[in-house]
């Protein structure tokens, strides 16, 4: 009977406690912490990027790709549709959200203590919470804020790498068509040579050997045309991959007009731009700041943390309150010293990586600038000297063969020299465009118009506007 009475009292008391604790939970449900300045800045940047990259969850405002599309349309499509860019974006967003977790107080704990013999003698609900130093939470937020900045620059790098992959496939496909045009024109020319050789053979001024040589050259060139045409498939696959299109999706149309990368800055100026904008450097600088905040946080481990709480005995009359407080004792000095030393080592490593990247960046600027200058000189030589003279030499050899003043070997040599110089011109243009694209995008970190990053207009510019910049 006493046990039943105790159970009844416990049930009644539990109902009362549920009401009290429920009210407490409702009060705490609306609690919010105070964001740090670094968190506010990080969230503002994330909101700007989100409006440009994902205005709404899952929404992609992609440009339509058709025969009238431009290179700028391809770039915007790829930057917004590439899964690697999307993964980098959500890694960045996750890091920003973790700032709130690090600067927030731990969740309080509701407790309930009962003294039971034959009946419930005491009922003591309570509320306990850990209370770390406010400065520790602020520094933890700064560490993750710096990490979120590093993640943002990883996102920027992914955007730039996507833009470069698109440009690389775009230029290679365009100049592939130029190579095919040259090969087909040469094939027609060799057909004319065969007819000339037959005429010379019929007139008794040449042998069948000239006809066979012309046919051999034609067959060799037909095979080369087939190989070049077949190489279009992997280049289209590369373009589709850069655009974020799957293998079963339709091949994108290639813009008919070639749009060059306008870049006329000197090597010194490009190096200055790269030191200012290159996202790899910005990422490593953020990692140095993260390590510096880590040192500050490690030094805070010398300070104790607290926990506090209060319990109330609702069975007592009047109600008895029982506050409690606890404190951690950071007595392990070797552990604290090791934590600080590890943080300092992380900073030194981050600084060394930054210095190494700056040195490597200077090398890359020098190499890509040389490639651009070399290609420009080769193009000038080919267009102003070699190609005109090769065409003139071919016309002279062709006229001389028709009158029997030279043999077919000299005619083929003149044709081969012209073909070699024509293909060398295409190769020089390809190398120049790829070097310019890599120098401006990956090395200097110049974002293309319409890139969903900070500091770039939200709407893509037209090709004319890009050139004006």
Characterize the structure shown.
This protein has 469 residues and is an alpha+beta fold. It has one domain (48-110, 132-303, 370-468): Outer membrane efflux proteins (OEP) (Up-down Bundle), CATH 1.20.1600. Helix content is 69%, strand content 8%. A four-stranded antiparallel sheet has the order 1-2-3-4. Residues 1-27 and 460-469 have low confidence and may be disordered.
Task: Please name the defining characteristics of this protein.
single chain, 469 residues, alpha+beta, Outer membrane efflux proteins (OEP), four-stranded antiparallel beta sheet, 12 helices, 4 strands, 69% helix, 8% strand, elongated, disordered N terminus, disordered C terminus
CATH superfamily: Outer membrane efflux proteins (OEP)
Task: Kindly report how far apart the N and C termini lie.
Answer: 92 Å
Number of domains: 1
In helices, the fraction of residues equals: 55-70%
Question: In percent terms, what proportion of residues is strand?
Answer: 5-15%
Q: What is the gyration radius calculated from CA atoms?
A: 37 Å
Stretches where pLDDT is under 50 for at least 5 consecutive residues are 1-27, 460-469
CATH topology: Outer membrane efflux proteins (OEP)
Morphology call: elongated
Largest sheet: 4 strands, antiparallel
* Run of helices and strands: HHHHEEHHHHHEEHHH
CATH architecture: Up-down Bundle
Number of helices: 12
Classification by helices and strands: alpha+beta
What is the number of strand segments? 4
Brief rundown of the structure:
This protein is α+β, with helices and mostly antiparallel strands and 469 residues long. The chain is 69% helix and 8% strand. It is built from twelve helices and four strands; from the N terminus they run H-H-H-H-E-E-H-H-H-H-H-E-E-H-H-H.
